[in-house]
Specification:
Blueprint: H1 6-9, H2 14-18, H3 77-92, E1 100-105, H4 114-124, E2 129-130, H5 132-135, H6 142-151, E3 153-160, H7 162-167, H8 173-182, E4 187-191, H9 196-202, H10 204-207, E5 212-213, H11 219-230
Helix pairs in contact: 6-8
């Protein structure tokens, strides 16, 4: 069977196409591409095609309105849907320059583990974080300090871990923080080492909120999404 010469000569003119032993001037299927070498399949900006994400799931990837054109951060359609109301709330607070970017709500047991890691990664990217380990001074009234932190932050992050699930039924400080955060459209749960099903068993209201999950992506990827979300 004759081989197409487009990879060598290119079909950039009628005469080149006519001289091809395979195409012979009678096939016009490549004409709209100029030359064979310039053709590439239709692929989304996140490296997936036909509605498939990089991980091969059926959840499509989508670029949210707040993501920069040259950004390499990948979002699922569900994440865009979840984070859009939070972004809208952030934009409404744009003129209040004295606010922290995020308030980090976590269980006491996580303060030196994942909560600190999340805090440090966010700070390394220039995100300002209200974090009890840094912002509550020795001897300061605890609940008053938390109230102030909540009131002066754009977004609330809730680190949902097994320790948090154990603490919530006791209705301690973390539960009071959540009550305030749930009343606003500025709450993002981050699930780690547990599931949303387990969270719904303990807190149906918090479990009804979609968020981010470390079983689906790394904590570094989550931090990259949060940085983009709060950047105006």
């Amino acid at each position: 069977m004759p081989k197409c010469t487009a990879p060598v000569r290119g079909h950039q003119s009628p005469s080149a196409r006519a001289n091809c032993p395979a195409c012979g001037g009678g096939y016009s299927g490549r004409s709209s591409y100029g030359s064979y070498g310039s053709y590439s399949p239709s692929v989304s900006s996140y490296g997936s095609s036909s509605g498939q994400s990089n991980g091969g799931s059926s959840t499509s990837s989508k670029r949210p309105s707040w993501s920069q054109k040259n950004s390499s951060v990948i979002y699922t359609s569900e994440q865009v849907r979840t984070l859009t109301p939070v972004r809208n709330s952030i934009e409404k607070l744009a003129e209040k320059s004295d606010l922290r970017d995020v308030f980090l709500c976590h269980a006491w047991d996580d303060r030196k583990g994942l909560a600190k890691l999340l805090h440090d990664l966010l700070v390394s990217r220039g995100v300002t974080v209200w974090f009890s380990e840094k912002d509550i001074l020795l001897g300061a009234p605890l609940l008053r300090a938390i109230d102030k932190g909540l009131a002066n932050s754009r977004v609330g992050l809730v680190l949902v871990t097994p320790a948090m699930l154990r603490r919530l039924p006791a209705e301690g400080v973390a539960d009071k923080e959540l009550s305030v955060l749930l009343a606003r459209d500025r709450l993002i749960p981050i699930v780690h080492d547990t599931t949303y099903e387990a969270l719904r068993d303990v807190s149906p209201l918090l479990g009804s909120r979609s968020g981010l999950d470390t079983s689906e992506e790394t904590i570094e990827d989550i931090v990259a999404k949060l940085e983009e979300l709060i950047t105006l």
